[in-house]
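Email to the structure team, subject: DUF8030 domain-containing protein model.

Hi all, the expression group asked for a predicted structure before they design truncation constructs. Nothing fancy, just the tokens so they can compare against earlier work. One-line instruction: predict DUF8030 domain-containing protein, return tokens.
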Amino acid sequence: MHSEQQQHTGSNERPLNDSNQPNSPWSNLQLTVPNNRHHTSIVTFVECVLVELTHEDVGAEYVSSNVWGTKRTQFIAVDPLAEAFYKRHYDERLGWHETTVSRESVRSELINRLSQTDSHATDRSHSVPVESTDVFSVKPVRQLYNRQS
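Reply from the structure team: attached below.
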């Protein structure tokens, strides 16, 4: 019995950690846009996020609201090595759309989004701008898949 357990510990499966633990390493990975972080700090932050997406049962979500509604972009690892990710995009007008993208694409997109000096939400080109900022956070995968809007 003990040898059977040892055989399974070397598998490529992700650990089944309790995603509700407030002390989880990923629980504080949240950032608003715009922010006052330097580029190097954002790159480091994104690298931390990618490590958590690789080792924990969590995904990343970027949420932006504007006069046309809320938009969500989620990144969830496809495989235990996290070389590919599901990119799930939600637009209130169009619904959900899912594609598969590379780890490098996720890294580049997150760095670009989190480095923005303006939020889509605070765009003043409309007569009624949304006052909230864009928000990026790491959440349990089951919470991301249960999200209806």
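The chain has one domain: 38-121+129-149. DSSP finds four helices and six strands in the chain. Ping us if the truncation boundaries need rechecking.
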